[in-house]
Design the sequence.
């Protein structure tokens, strides 16, 4: 008897839930928990910022925003998981500049058309780091050295074709130096590359100044310049390559919210407005700067433009380097 | 399944050749002398060498041994069925997981296996749903692993 | 290290919330580690969202104590059910499982907890005194040194794989081959992915480990060949920590060697923890008076590798704290949490705020001390695990294996890997190919390849470049000497015995 009653209750609940789902189309998004896919591993910069954004979104919308790490393949696995999700607004993700590069590299599954863009919340330039006792007065001296002794200066920071590589090789290319004048040593991210630099096995690491900060403080590493056209508010003392070398080249790795192409317009608008508020929130700002990340908000349309212009600019560089397929 | 070294050895060497062929298909990048194919090449060469060593050992050991020996599977049907379900039930589960959901699938998988392994009906009926629900709630609610609730979504 | 700093650090740690975090973290770690198929790395990753809402010291304390506990408790399913909790413990899982089959589960479990705790305490002690110095030394290691260390780690495979080296190396190569699957970092091109998107991310060692050890053991349980007999293995007397001091007196050098090796190797970012236990096990066998007993349930190697395991755990934090270079997933997460809480890892942390790193090391101390009482309880409870009938525990293990492989990346792909690895592992073991080297190859394969390629790119393909740096030259010579010694030994061995004499060993499996 008791069990029949229970079954009855459960069936009613189930039916009610089904009705609720059916009604969801008319009700306001979000009706239930939203999944936020992060293509990079837990504890990294993208993960940390994504979790901060997700926590604030949760507060604003009153529904859980669950961060799920889908890692591997240099971010490709997670990026394609976002692109292939059902565009119902209940799966979104944080995308990074790598999403603009896969197609040119000949990796299938993701290109800028795969997404609907919500907005960008962070962008930080890549720095040029050398050993502190290498004796370079500035980035000009390093470039002179590369020019004078082709094939002797080794650089690292990511895999071959990773953004670190493109930023450094692209800079050399813009300066009229053959990009392979500096040998690229492929590494698995910036941490092993910085280790190599500190141990004196290589000469240059191109990575964000935030990642190199601890070693810079230790007096092991010096950041010569940022590959950018304007100085970073977080590191106002580091010159840019544009002012030092008079060159137009600023590939900015970004982090932004996006969902699979075909998201409902209301969802994108709601998220866009929320993201803008978050980026103006002093607490979020101070969190970001404590980790060495700047807050650089762009709305949906501008972010989309940025993505497409990065897509084209990086494709050009990859062709020059023979990395495009 | 015990396979004679007279099969294993040559098979390993052949596998090594296949690995090398596979490595040679990998795209080379101009300007990169030490690339993606180096390590698989070395591994392939290693397989060929070890395959030869194992074949030699197999032929020295003599030819009275069966090439493929399945005698360890001469067991009662229940055990065969349990082994089959252990593998087949998982394969099945992979296909129905998202539609059926974790709790229901895990319950069926566990209950069938318990019965095949000789647990009594009452024990099965009590233990399998309890364990599955504990794991389900512990993981989906406590540790935020996204496990699909599936058919039981309205109830759990 | 002034007394002042110590006192300050003590006041930071002796707060209710910190102590509570350590205790809760330990219980949580014990639980996760003891569940078959769940690992220490996973326990930390699952903690991240929770640490977001905590103050810095309790957050770190939570991570510290849960990993220390999960790694030690991970030896329990390894010992009782042959499911290793970390790639490091895969080095000695078979040894401790053999002890269980001999009815010495109590001793094996006690060794696990006792020497883990002791190793951890030694590691934390060394760190308190030499932390920044150790970090400075570790910073001198480049890809050349890492390459030689990886080779050294792979050579221990020859020692753990018993009499038939050819089969051991076949397993090892198999692991290295699996590790090459996915996007290659040198050229960014996919390798052996056969068009599968999920394979681009490579094959994670967790489902492979679960499949090869646990799943294959379950399959074997259905055959006439099962290792444990029809019933679960007998427990023997369960008296936690009984006779442990006797073992401590009998093998003091094993403990000292293991703990110091763990502390030293653990401080190297990226390879530390996993490598230490393998090298320790191999070294223990090399120096032992009774190497022939290894692999049959002999406590000596177990003591050495399990001490090094936990000692290495705490030193892995040193490069992370001093230079912000995280060595593994656990410390990477911890560095992220620290940054987020406004505590920036770096040498300035040691100068400006030395009580902070000291407090973190003290958390290690407390967590490892907690291993004694919690280990006691856990061993007591272990009795119940083995008294559950097979028909109940095997299905539970399988569901846990499913969950563990799924939770790696929250996809069913991990379950596929587990399933295939299980079937392959079963056939391999049946034919005398050892399983542990596969895991070794899988974990060290990427380390070996990346550092090899990096070094070749730096030296322009000149192999002499591998001997140019002093530490690299030293390590390289050691590796070459071991290789020569091994070859000479096996030639002498074959001269004394007839060829094929090693067959008896793998027949017995």
Sequence:
């Amino acid at each position: 008897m008791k069990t029949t009653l229970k079954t009855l209750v459960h069936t009613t609940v189930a039916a009610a839930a089904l009705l609720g789902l059916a009604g969801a189309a008319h009700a306001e998004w979000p009706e239930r928990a939203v999944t936020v896919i992060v293509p990079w591993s837990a504890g990294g910069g993208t993960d940390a910022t994504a979790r901060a954004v997700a926590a604030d979104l949760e507060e604003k919308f009153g529904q859980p925003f669950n961060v799920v790490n889908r890692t591997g393949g240099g971010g490709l696995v997670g990026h394609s998981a976002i692109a292939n999700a059902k565009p119902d607004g209940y799966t979104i993700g944080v995308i990074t500049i790598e999403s603009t590069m896969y197609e040119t590299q000949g990796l299938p599954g993701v290109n800028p058309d795969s997404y609907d863009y919500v907005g960008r919340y962070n962008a930080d330039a890549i720095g040029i780091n050398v050993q502190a006792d290498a004796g370079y007065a500035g980035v000009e001296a390093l470039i002179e050295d590369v020019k004078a002794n082709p094939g002797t200066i080794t650089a690292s920071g990511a895999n071959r074709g990773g953004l670190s590589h493109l930023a450094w090789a692209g800079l050399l290319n813009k300066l009229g130096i053959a990009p392979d004048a500096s040998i690229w040593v492929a590494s698995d991210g910036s941490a092993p590359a910085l280790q190599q630099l500190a141990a004196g096995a290589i000469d240059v690491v191109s990575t964000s100044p935030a990642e190199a900060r601890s070693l810079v403080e230790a007096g092991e590493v010096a950041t010569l310049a940022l590959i950018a056209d304007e100085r970073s508010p977080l590191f106002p003392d580091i010159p840019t390559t544009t002012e030092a070398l008079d060159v137009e080249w600023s590939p900015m790795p970004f982090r932004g919210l996006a969902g699979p192409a075909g998201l409902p317009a209301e969802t994108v608008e709601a998220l866009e407005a929320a993201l803008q508020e978050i980026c103006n929130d002093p607490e979020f700002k101070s969190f970001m700067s404590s980790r060495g990340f700047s807050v650089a908000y762009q709305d949906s349309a501008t972010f989309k433009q940025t993505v497409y212009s990065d897509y084209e600019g990086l494709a050009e560089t990859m062709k020059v380097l023979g990395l495009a397929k | 399944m015990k396979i004679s070294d007279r099969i294993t050895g040559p098979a390993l060497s052949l596998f090594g050749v296949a690995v090398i062929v596979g490595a040679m298909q990998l795209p080379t990048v101009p300007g990169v002398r030490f690339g993606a194919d180096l390590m698989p090449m070395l591994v392939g060469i290693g397989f060929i060498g070890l395959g030869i060593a194992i074949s030699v050992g197999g032929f020295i050991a003599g030819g009275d041994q069966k090439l493929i020996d399945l005698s360890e599977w001469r067991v009662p049907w229940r055990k065969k069925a349990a082994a089959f379900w252990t593998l087949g039930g998982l394969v099945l589960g992979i296909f129905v997981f998202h539609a059926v959901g974790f709790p229901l699938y895990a319950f069926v998988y566990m209950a069938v296996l318990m019965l095949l392994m000789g647990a009594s009906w009452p024990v099965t009926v009590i233990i399998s749903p309890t364990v599955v629900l504990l794991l389900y709630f512990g993981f989906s609610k406590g540790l935020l692993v996204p496990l699909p609730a599936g058919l039981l979504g309205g109830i759990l | 290290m002034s007394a002042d700093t110590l006192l300050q650090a003590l006041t930071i740690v002796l707060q209710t919330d910190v102590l509570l975090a350590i205790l809760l973290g330990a219980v949580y770690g014990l639980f996760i580690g003891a569940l078959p198929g769940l690992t220490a790395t996973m326990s930390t990753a699952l903690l991240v969202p929770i640490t977001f809402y905590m103050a810095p010291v309790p957050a770190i304390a939570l991570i510290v104590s849960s990993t220390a506990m999960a790694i030690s408790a991970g030896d329990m399913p390894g010992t009782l059910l042959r499911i290793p909790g970390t790639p490091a413990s895969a080095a000695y899982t078979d040894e401790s499982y053999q002890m269980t089959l001999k009815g010495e589960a109590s001793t094996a479990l006690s060794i696990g907890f006792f020497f883990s705790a002791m190793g951890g305490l030694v590691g934390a002690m060394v760190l308190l005194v030499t932390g920044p110095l150790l970090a400075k030394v570790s910073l001198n290691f480049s890809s050349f040194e890492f390459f030689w260390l990886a080779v050294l780690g792979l050579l221990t495979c020859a020692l753990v794989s018993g009499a038939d080296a050819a089969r051991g190396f076949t397993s090892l190569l198999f692991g290295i081959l699996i590790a090459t699957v996915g996007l290659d970092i040198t050229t960014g091109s996919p390798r052996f992915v056969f068009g599968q998107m999920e394979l681009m991310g490579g094959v994670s060692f967790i489902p492979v480990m679960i499949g090869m050890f646990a799943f294959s053991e379950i399959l074997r349980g259905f055959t006439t060949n099962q290792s444990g007999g029809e019933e679960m293995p007998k427990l023997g007397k369960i008296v936690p920590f009984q006779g442990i001091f006797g073992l401590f007196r009998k093998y003091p050098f094993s403990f000292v060697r293991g703990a110091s090796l763990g502390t030293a190797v653990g401080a190297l970012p990226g390879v530390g923890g996993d490598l230490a236990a393998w090298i320790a096990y191999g070294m223990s066998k090399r120096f032992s008076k009774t190497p022939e007993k290894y692999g049959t349930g002999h406590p000596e190697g177990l003591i050495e590798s399990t001490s090094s395991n936990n000692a290495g755990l705490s030193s892995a934090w040193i490069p992370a704290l001093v230079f912000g270079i995280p060595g593994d997933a656990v410390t990477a997460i911890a560095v992220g949490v620290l940054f987020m809480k406004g505590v920036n890892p770096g040498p300035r942390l040691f100068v400006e705020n030395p009580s902070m790193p000291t407090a973190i090391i003290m958390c290690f101390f407390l967590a490892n001390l907690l291993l004694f009482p919690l280990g006691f309880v856990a061993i007591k409870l272990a009795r119940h695990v083995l008294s559950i009938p097979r028909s109940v525990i095997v299905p539970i293990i399988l569901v846990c294996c499913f969950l563990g492989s799924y939770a790696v990346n929250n996809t069913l792909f991990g379950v596929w890997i587990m399933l295939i690895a299980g079937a392959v592992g079963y056939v391999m073991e049946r034919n005398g190919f050892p399983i542990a080297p596969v895991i070794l190859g899988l974990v060290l394969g990427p380390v070996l390849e990346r550092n090899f390629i990096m070094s070749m790119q730096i030296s322009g393909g000149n192999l002499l470049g591998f001997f140019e740096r002093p530490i690299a030259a030293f390590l390289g010579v050691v590796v070459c000497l071991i290789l020569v010694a091994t070859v000479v030994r096996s030639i002498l061995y074959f001269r004394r015995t007839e060829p094929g004499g090693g067959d008896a060993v793998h027949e017995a499996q």
Observations:
- The helical segments of chain B are 5-25, 38-61, 77-100, 102-116, 121-142.
- Chain B has two domains: 2-71, 75-152.
- The two ends of chain B are 43 Å apart (CA to CA).
